[in-house]
Please model this.
Amino acid sequence: MEDMSTIDYHIFFEELLEVVPWPLMIVDTSLVICFSNARAQALFETNESLNGSRIDQFITDAAILRLIQQSVETGRARSEEHNRADASIGITGIAWNITVTPLAHKRIKKKFRFYAIVIEDYTELRRLERARRDFIANISHELRTPLASVRLLAETLEDAIDTDREQAQAFVEKIENEVYHLTTLVTELLDLSRIESGQTPMSIEPVEAELLVREVMARMLPQAQSHRVQLRTEIEQGKTRVAADSKQITRVLVNLLHNAIKFTPSGGTVVIGTRPHSGATAQSFFVRDTGAGIPPEDLPRIFERFYKVNRARSKAGFNGPEGRASGGSGLGLAIARHVVEAHGGRIKAESVPGQGSTFTFTLPVIHRADIQ
Model:
């Protein structure tokens, strides 16, 4: 057995603090930090030691400070969950569970001189809970609407099938469109789930940037023409080869181009192109339109699944890439973001309401030396 008399208790104590899996600080009755661990420094985003500083230099929330003070005054342990706003990064709903525990000291009998403060950060857990609730609410809404339409159309079809064949056929076509929408929604949900979980294998190979752009241009040109939208390309250094799964990146470009045509009025222009990104390590791909644009309040959220900007911006009767009526599932941009990030790239959107939008993403460049 280890001889306890040989242990340096100061070092032993500091190492124990680092073992605690949460930010931990020990303060005195003046709320001066006497000891803290590395997780506490990380929480407050500082490389400097917290020791010797007052805790209110790092925690400014009055409710949390009041909780700590109450524990100091009563000598009793206190624990509460607090939600606060982080103005520095524009996020609300940061959740901390604060536990304050008086530490007994045999030399001062019942009087407490030090207090342990443990901060459990529940922010990510709460975010996941909100995401789960939002997902259930969104998918319920997305499924309920077409299912209700199919049911109503089927009931009406029963009455019309023997009396009005032409009207019955119209109802059948509407039912087919609703079923198509449901099928697309389920397919995109499965695709997004596979991509997010890394279960969609990417067949990455060298592809010329120009080739990707021109293939998508040719595919979407008939749709642009049918909606009287001018579609053109801007290609700079298109011979540059990028590391890409051409099928998946084509899907991203088709989705971006489809949305651009959808939200651009007749007589407008949509441009698809490619150019070098800053430096020589990435190539940019972009889709720019002269459409309705995206409101500033919507712009930060458009890559979230199920998030939809006002549908009134789109042209009435607009058809999707397969030629059917397209209401949009709200999953296309979320899929695009995950596909691009799986390639090691980034995607972003810029927009001025009433003037148009530009979607840009990057892919890694393959140099000759990289090719075996």
Q: What stands out?
A: Confidence is low (pLDDT under 50) at residues 86-91, 322-326.
